[in-house]
Automatic annotation (TrEMBL):
MF GO annotations: ATP binding
GO cellular component assignments: bacterial nucleoid
Organism: Jiangella rhizosphaerae
Top-level taxon of the source organism: Bacteria
SUPFAM superfamilies according to UniProt: P-loop containing nucleoside triphosphate hydrolases
GO biological process: DNA recombination; DNA repair; SOS response
Family recorded in the similarity comment: Belongs to the RecN family.
Annotated function: May be involved in recombinational repair of damaged DNA.
Domain RecF/RecN/SMC N-terminal per the UniProt entry, residue ranges: 2-531
Keywords: ATP-binding, DNA damage, DNA repair, Nucleotide-binding
Protein known as: DNA repair protein RecN
Length: 580
């Protein structure tokens, strides 16, 4: 529910604060521009398009701030929290199982004179689009432009479904799920059948590649192992010669008895140190290190001898390795940079080939599922059509009764539910609301059969019929009383008061008969210092309401007859509300 709106620097409004409450709030005043700016400010707060030209002359920016209360756990609360908004607990409402925690949410919109704008939600900067998302769950605005939405076939279908309630909502939810699955199944069928040639070609290429890999039968890491083996075989003589030479350097050459070697030299060094090691621990440590070095060099020399003896020249094995490497290289040129990647490709290719080879079975399964879904959708669509047809008759009767009360005694609507070809996302029905304003006239589409004023009252009649069923807590009506007066205006006020029993209602009006039904009366006041004209908003008390209604009735606040008439209007409205 809207608790407060503050508007600064917008059009003729310098600084205005609207304290709103539950029930019916009306906005009146002498300045039409001021009343328009109230609605413009609300539109900006709800994410509407920003216009730098609406910024008040002399101001650099216009700012609209709003404070709303929402239920914890509601879609609006969850979306705001998801966007990072701060939500302040402000108490609870209801009792027992109906008890609900209420949260306060602050909204803000700033429009610069050059046209840029920015938004804040819950104290944090947010995209303007977020205000629009939140508005869908906060406010329903019915103005001359908003009424055009009812002219759309999709909106008329949605209105009827909303009126029908669970009778349509429950089967429609099942229908929607199955319809989405049907679309997915048909897309898969289309892909399989329309691309059969491409899929067959893909399968043939996979078989060829998998056959080639299978014939070579590579093993994980085989390419690296063979590369190392080829290197050893190709350089066997050089490797053996190097090992023998190194061994001789370490342990001596038997063919050269007096030749120097590392082990002999180390032995001589140890012999030089051993006699004196007991005289100095540091020298003893050095002698021990020479002993360790001799042991290590001896081990290396033995390993070199073993390595040299084990290196054999094997031309046949070298040819085998080179041939095998060539076969593996042929695979890595086509299917991966390494043999491990080739094996991974083969595994994925085998799975894909199984899928492609199973197309016939898949087509049969998808076709069977499609037939089952079509049958289920047919049953659900028939249920939905029946519920819509029944609701259409009730809806037309209920709205026609309300139109009669709104001084349109001969007006009526007809809701036609017509079949269309094939299944759609909302069933197999087209819905159109037709309107006739007098007896003997053929019902016509709303855009041809209803004037702007008639559309305003039609929207009011529809909302009264929906009262209590709409999740939106606040309704805003602009020019709902266009083209009416007298008794019709009283009935408009009475219907707005009825709607306000179930929701917060804000109405901008120029008719005293409507304003008399207000639970709260706001007046746009104009001031002029000779240079600049500005407007503000004040809340009227009982005396102020009489004066304002007198002005609206006679154009003169001091008229005694007008005041008497104003008091009579207020008493009539109060009696009407008490009787309900």
């Amino acid at each position: 529910m809207l608790e407060e709106i503050r508007i600064r620097g917008l059009g003729v409004i310098d600084d205005a604060q609207l304290e709103l409450g539950p029930g019916l709030t009306v906005v009146t005043g002498e300045t039409g521009a001021g009343k328009t700016m109230v609605l413009t400010g609300l539109n900006l707060l709800m994410g509407g398009r920003a216009d730098g030209g609406a910024v008040r002359t002399g101001s650099s920016r216009a700012v609209v701030e709003g404070r709303v209360t929402i239920d914890a756990g509601s879609a609006v609360a969850e979306r705001a929290a998801e966007a990072g908004a701060d939500l302040e607990p402000v108490g609870t409402v209801g009792k027992g199982k109906e008890k609900r925690e209420r949260l306060e949410l602050l909204l803000s919109r700033t429009v610069m004179a050059e046209g840029r704008s920015r938004a804040h939600v819950g104290g944090h900067s947010a995209p303007v689009s977020l205000l629009g998302e939140l508005a869908d769950g906060l406010v329903a605005v019915h103005g001359q432009s908003d009424q055009q939405r009812l002219l759309r076939a999709s909106r008329q279908l949605a209105a009827l479904d909303r009126y029908a309630g669970a009778a349509v909502a429950e089967p429609l939810a099942e229908y929607t799920t199955r319809y989405a699955r049907l679309r997915a199944v048909e897309a898969q069928l289309d892909e399989v059948t329309s691309k059969a040639r491409e899929r067959a070609q893909e399968a043939d290429l996979l078989r060829l590649g998998l056959g080639e890999v299978e014939s070579v039968d590579p093993q994980p890491g085989e390419d690296e192992a063979l590369r190392a083996e080829e290197g050893r075989l190709a350089h066997a003589d050089a490797l053996r010669t190097a090992a023998v030479a190194a061994h001789q350097s370490l342990s001596g050459d038997e063919t050269v008895p007096d030749g120097p070697d590392v082990l002999s030299l180390l032995a001589q060094a140890r012999q030089a140190l051993e006699p004196e090691r007991d005289h100095d621990p540091e020298l003893a440590a050095l002698a021990d290190r020479l002993a360790e070095a001799a042991y290590l060099i001896g081990d290396v020399a033995a390993d070199l001898a073993s390595y040299g003896a084990g290196v054999d020249t094997d031309p046949e094995r070298l040819a085998e390795v080179q041939q095998r490497r060539a076969a593996l290289t042929a695979l890595t040129r086509k299917y991966g940079d390494t043999i491990d990647e080739v094996l991974a490709w083969a595994e994925a290719g085998s799975r894909r080939l199984l899928e492609l080879d199973g197309d016939d079975d898949r087509v049969a399964a998808l076709g069977q599922e499609r037939e089952t879904l079509l049958a289920e959708l047919g049953d659900l669509a028939a249920t939905i059509t029946k519920a819509r047809t029944e609701a259409a008759a009730r809806f037309a009767d209920d709205v026609s009764v309300e139109l009669t009360a709104l001084a349109m005694p001969h007006a009526r609507i007809v809701v036609e539910v017509r079949p269309r070809d094939g299944f759609g996302p909302t069933g197999v029905d087209d819905v159109e609301i037709l309107f006739t304003g007098h007896n003997g006239a053929q019902p016509r589409p709303l855009d041809k059969g209803a004037s702007g004023g008639e559309l305003s009252r039609l929207m009011l009649a529809i909302e009264v019929v929906f009262a209590g069923a709409d999740p939106v807590p606040t309704f805003v009506f602009d020019e709902v009383d266009a083209g009416v007066g007298g008794k019709a205006a009283v009935e408009v006020g009475r219907r707005l008061a009825m709607l306000a029993r179930h929701a917060q209602v804000l109405v901008v009006t120029h008719l005293p008969q409507v304003a008399a039904f207000a639970d709260q009366h706001l007046k746009v006041v104009k001031s002029d210092d000779g240079r600049v004209t500005s407007s503000g908003v004040e809340t009227l008390d009982d005396t102020g309401r009489v004066s304002e209604l007198s002005r609206m009735l006679a154009g003169l606040e001091g008229s005694a007859s007008a005041r008497a008439h104003a008091e009579e209007l207020l008493e009539t409205a109060a009696s009407s509300k008490r009787s309900r």
